[in-house]
Every structure is written in structure tokens, then in C-alpha cells.
Amino acid sequence: MTYALFRVARLFLGLFLYAVGIVMTINANLGLAPWDVFHQGLAKMFHITMGQASISVGIILVLLNSFLSEKLGWGTLGNMLFVGLFIDFLMFNNLIPIFQDVLPRFIMMFLGMFIIGIASCLYMGAGLGSGPRDGLMVVIAKRTGKSVGLVRNAIEISVLMLGCVLGGFVGIGTPIMAFTVGFFVQLAFKLFKFDVSAVQHRFIDEDIKHLGKLLSKSDSNAGTE
Asked: Which region, left, alpha or beta, applies to residue 43 given φ > 0 means left and ψ of -120 to 50 means alpha?
């Protein structure tokens, strides 16, 4: 029970820090990361917040991943919902500063990417499933037989193009983040000695089966009394 609570706490800390990193890259005002260009484009089109756009995209991706037989974890659903909620909470309350000078803005952007790397260590290390966007990358790589790197680049270029059409903000920071966020994630993994391949994820269907067995056992015990 204690270990389960630790995993949930680790998950939510990771999701919150992930939102912090995203808002830092947004507030740097140097251009948005590819997915955020898409989210902002949707936000403008439908007159919703960035967080709501992130949640909406997450819901669609979870449904798509499920249709394509990718296993979902509680962390997948948590990522889908809470990252967007945390983004709106941070932005509405102005909890992340905005700088005017260029140098602090670049520092904020790079620091934001590093925090995203730390957040990835935390939420992935909870072993409760990957996020909807990572899940899409994995399931397409499995289906096509292409490398994860190639699939990730194709997805990010696609959402970037869609975001541009919808009016999302593209700037000098956009290509920088597109090509360097992987480095910062890897740096965080190395500093915290986190091996993503060693994580054993627990998925929702496994919990449902386990609950079913417990209920069946309970019914059997009740019937023998």
C-alpha cells in the first residue's frame, strides 16, 4: 500500500513538473515546441485555453492508442488530464515569470526543457504507463517497423505544420526545442541514473483482471461460509 502511494505521488509530482517545464518554454516567448504550436492553434480556433487544448488532444490520442491496441496505464490517463489542468493553473495564476530581455528568456527555455527531462524521469519511473503522445509514438513504431526516432520526428513535424496552419506561434525557439529537447531529457536520465528500459509498467487491464480475481475469491469464500 505504501509503495503504491509512493508511485502515485511520484507520478503527480512528475506531471506537475512537466507542466512547469512546458509553461517555462511558453513564457520564454521564443516560439513554442511543436506539440504546443498545435495546442495553441487549437486554442485559438476553438477559443479554449492551452490546457484545455492539451487535454482534448490527449483524449483523442488515448482513444486512438486504445483502438490500435496500445496498453493504457493510470499514468496515461493522469498525463492526459492533469498536465493540461496544471498548465492552466500555472498560467492563470502567473506563477511562472515572463522576462523581457533575450538572455533570461533563452535561459528559461533551456531550463524548462531540463525540467521536462526531470519530470519524465519521475512520471515514467512511477511505472503506470506512458503519456498519450509517447504512446502514439510507440504504437506507430510497432505498426510500421520504423525507428522510434524517425516516428517521433514525423509526428512532431506533422503537428507543427498543423499548428502553423491554425495560427500557433513559431519562432526561433521552435526548431531549437524540436532538436534539443531529447538531449535535455537524456541528460536528466543520465544525471538521475534512470534507465527507462528497466521500468516495469502496470497497466489498467492488469488491475482490472487483478480486481476480478479478488472479487471471485471473495465470492468463493462467502459461498463456503
From this structure: alpha
